[in-house]
């Protein structure tokens, strides 16, 4: 049985990412014959991880290929620490968000204990609300900062002000449900989620930009996350784009991409500081710019211009097949697109940009949360039979 | 015998990169036992690719592990098209430059035919001068521009003014010695050569910067070249660093990294344009700066400052274990290092830079040529017995 495990994980991964698939499609995607699919599926059914059913719309005439679907009770807990908001969700095998809870977070001064305490309380609510027989197979978390691979240590969180805080370990301790917490940088996870099931499907070389208050980056090279020497790669937000009269950045420098294109830059350029902050304030500027407000339009143009410089540089460096705008940039990019495109035309090499498509996230704001969920599913997918799950 | 081929290539690769190695060391590095090494070596000896000998300094007392060395006659032809100079070399298995020829090249106006004609003539001289029994196993070429993988088409050469020129195919036709010509971008090849046998050994995440007239980049992510969607990644020279009053760049834009840090920027800042150009002129500015000439020192400081911005951005994006300065930057970097370091301190995230070492190339100006040679050796190393070589 042991020799089957890599294939079992591959089959389960296909069903997790694509949802219900016929045995015929699975055989084709995995490059194996149908009897192999039959045997693998039988093992996964016995383990309670998948079910089989007749495809929707068939009436029993003929014998269509059975459809393999994720078992409904298998799930992970996924957490998302963004600048303004803490989110916890129960995400099922197959990628559906089954239940979610969230809480507002103060922009500064939140210490490790309060963040972990809030998340753990949200997580317990989700556990208590889960239906009978539901089985949690892992925990993943997305964090808006630099994360040490392996132990989920927050090395640096510029907005929240954390340095070397044992976030992953403390959250696991507070939850105490028998799983470690795998933690990743929010934009890294967003990039992986877009590649698996979003706007980056089939594009193994892609750049994902995640706008929160700042701008994070997740870059895939040949289908793999660019980690670098220590796992801290992709810090696009601190690429210096304006060395002459740059706006101050939360990192202590000036003129970083996120200082020129983040929420504060947009609101300041629109003459709206001091005033409300957050996603609603950003959307208001974009809406007013589209409606013809000249100050709002100039603010979108200015921020779009700096964003375009950043994107042009990334196209020169990475020759990506796609650049995907997520988080707050899902709202900003469509309005700023002409300014971004003009900078790409001026500064990106024609050969580098000839196949680069610009897209917004396809995951409706859940890219980072779904990426966190996939961290939680990783151990199950690596070795599906190691879990000894009760049959659901 | 077929099942041995991957291992045969691995053994040959070790000997090619490291030079003569004892059977004991090979067994350890490959994680196999000595009898496997014995069998593999016997096949490679029979194919004329390696020889065995007693290690230097042993006198026959005891039975030290035999040393496996590359066969002396096995070589490739390697070509290097730089801005001022065309080079051809015969490079042996093991990486030694056995013979070389070069010719000056006019900076502009050289068409495909004249470059190919000159290189082919140099190549024929090398072939004619090779000792009896020498065997050419491939041809590689380094080019100072953007190269299409697969067929060696020059998509864009900013200095030489080429667009979509079939360089690899034409050079192969002109040489007519039974091998295709594998072509790569000079900085890509330099990065690979530094990783294999230079300042990047053991550093799978590295950034190599190659100064010629412009600045090229070769970036390894997890030990593999960052190609991107079409193979055109790593265009660091056209990262926009000075959007406000940037110097004009040969690409048509302004303020690109190479426009602010290349040869022309240094000579202009030093008040030496019009005047002599090329590597000697660059070295003269660096020498005068070190000797206390204030104008030369200010030029080195200015260029070093822009170079530092570029390096800081690359550290943020790639979290490299090393940044390696090659080509003209081997001369410039040591003098400009304080200015580069100051910018890294200001703009690179502390976590991103904590393990990044700054080094100059260890290959004495031959990084791109040795990278080209490795392109030529690639087919042999992939399948050593496919060549049917005469025993040397």
List the helices and strands and how they pair.
Two copies of one chain form a homodimer.
Chain A: H1 5-18, E1 21-22, H2 23-30, H3 34-46, E2 50-53, E3 67-70, E4 74-81, E5 85-92, E6 97-104, H4 112-129, E7 135-143, E8 146-148, E9 153-157, E10 162-165, H5 167-175, E11 181-185, H6 186-197, E12 206-211, E13 215-221, E14 224-225, H7 257-261, H8 263-269, H9 279-290, H10 294-318, E15 322-327, H11 329-347, H12 350-353, E16 357-360, H13 367-382
Parallel strand pairs in A: 4-7, 7-11, 12-15, 15-16
Antiparallel strand pairs in A: 1-3, 2-3, 4-5, 5-6, 8-9, 9-10, 12-13, 13-14
Explained architecture:
The structure is a homodimer of 392-residue chains. With 392 residues, chain A is an alpha/beta fold. The first copy, chain A, folds into 3 domains: 2-70, Winged helix-like DNA-binding domain superfamily/Winged helix DNA-binding domain (Arc Repressor Mutant, subunit A, Orthogonal Bundle); 74-189 and 368-387, 2-Layer Sandwich (Nucleotidyltransferase, domain 5); 200-362, Nucleotidyltransferase, domain 5, CATH 3.30.420. The first copy, chain A, contains 13 helices and 16 strands. Chain A has helices spanning 5-18, 23-30, 34-46, 112-129, 167-175, 186-197, 257-261, 263-269, 279-290, 294-318, 329-347, 350-353, 367-382; strands spanning 21-22, 50-53, 67-70, 74-81, 85-92, 97-104, 135-143, 146-148, 153-157, 162-165, 181-185, 206-211, 215-221, 224-225, 322-327, 357-360. Chain A has a 5-stranded mixed beta sheet with strand order 6-5-4-7-11, sandwiched between helices. In chain A, helix 9 packs across helix 10 (294-318). The radius of gyration of chain A is 22 Å and the shape is globular. At the A-B interface, strand 13, helix 10 and helix 12 of A face strand 13, helix 10 and helix 12 of B.
